[in-house]
UniProtKB/TrEMBL annotation:
Keywords: Lipoprotein. It comes from Aliivibrio fischeri (Vibrio fischeri). It comes from the Bacteria. This is Lipoprotein.
Length: 266
């Protein structure tokens, strides 16, 4: 299960410039966060190369890699690619991604939006997991991923150049140069397993990612909306946006579990 997944039309472009596919990637890293058990490397967003698709063409694609590497022997969140994909409105939506011979469902980090002028445009905001081994492979060959609509009524294909991923690996080497290799290894192999439902799991993750002030703001709002969502929590924070998104997806029982978990953390 990949994390950080995870709202918001501002997620990918939160204060960072967007790279083009012919960039030299000398300044491809947006942010590095050192957590207690891992290092999270967030590359800048990039406009991939669009390949020939089936049934449609994209109007815009902005993709962004976040790679997580362990600094202890404990489990860490999976790495992932976040995507903002716009296309002419159609009767279908995109619900899966395939690359390197595997296909996986996408996870929305924010509800889809629509805008209309002469034509109507749909925009989906989603993430898909990428194994750290695939990041290493992509640093050699680039990454081509296909986005599939239900029943393959449409397929869009995009390529992110190898240099984008190599920049992340270079940053990883810099950040982990003093970490013993025996500790670094689990970053590739370990997976986070949880008996929690997905909304609970993701809410917990994003709560830990939020600042203390954001945690307090969310807790107050979540308690008021513990039965059903009656008020909106407006924020420009990516962490809060994702936290409220997943909390709103949870059942009443899940909401209770989330609030109990928060109280026990105090």
């Amino acid at each position: 299960m990949y994390k950080r997944i995870l709202g918001l039309s501002v997620v990918l472009l939160s204060g960072c410039s967007t790279l083009s596919s012919d960039d030299d990637f000398s300044d491809a890293i947006n942010e590095v966060e050192k957590k207690s058990t891992y290092v999270s490397i967030e590359a800048k967003s990039i406009n991939p190369i669009e390949n020939e698709g089936v049934g449609a063409n994209a109007m815009r694609n902005t993709s962004q890699l976040t790679a997580n590497y362990a600094t202890t022997s404990r489990a860490v969140p999976e790495s992932y690619v976040a995507v903002e994909l716009s296309y002419f409105k159609a009767s279908y939506v995109y619900d899966s991604v395939s690359f390197n011979g595997t296909e996986t469902d996408i996870t929305a980090y924010s509800p889809s939006t629509e805008s209309c002028s002469e034509h109507c445009t749909s925009t989906q905001y989603f993430t898909f997991p990428i194994d750290n081994k695939d990041i290493e492979l992509s640093a050699k060959n680039g990454l081509t991923y296909d986005v599939h609509a239900t029943n393959d009524t449409s397929k869009l294909s995009f390529t992110i150049p190898a240099g984008y991923f190599q920049a992340v690996l270079d940053e990883k080497a810099l950040q982990l140069e003093h970490i013993p290799s025996s500790v670094q290894q689990p970053a590739v192999e370990v997976k986070v397993e949880s008996k929690d439902s997905k909304p609970v799991e993701m809410s917990k993750y994003w709560f830990d990612e939020a600042t203390v002030a954001e945690q307090e703001q969310f807790t107050e709002w979540a308690f008021i909306n513990r039965k059903e969502i009656n008020t909106e929590l407006v924020s420009s924070s990516k962490e809060l946006e994702m936290l409220t998104y997943w909390y709103s997806k949870s059942s009443v029982t899940d909401k209770s579990n989330i609030l109990t978990w928060i109280i026990n953390k105090k």
